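This part of the workshop introduces the protein records we will be handling. Backbone structure tokens are a discrete shorthand for how the chain folds in space. Once this layout is familiar, the rest of the handout is easier to follow. The record below serves as our worked example for the rest of this section.
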Amino acid sequence: MPLWLLAGFVDDADQHSENAFNDTLALAGYQVVITAADGYSTTIDSTAITRNSNYIVANTRDGAHIPDSDDDWPLRLVGPAVNGGQSVAQIVSIDLLGKCARLRSTVA
């Protein structure tokens, strides 16, 4: 799932319509902090995720669900804009910080 779509679930009161992603907030700029189980995190500016598939939060690899025995489980950040330092496996939280209200989505 594209990271922008996940952010749209929590960036304002509109959580489920086709316009759930708040473009105004994203263009104003906030930070998306993605944290792994071991505490490693990467931060991406909201302007970089706006309605594109450059950053994807994946629960599958090569068409199959990531097994719970895999080092990437349950979710992994991938996509054409993700470089080595931004790669995060075992995602446990995604936080939106900055000009919008502090929002957090924890992977259960």
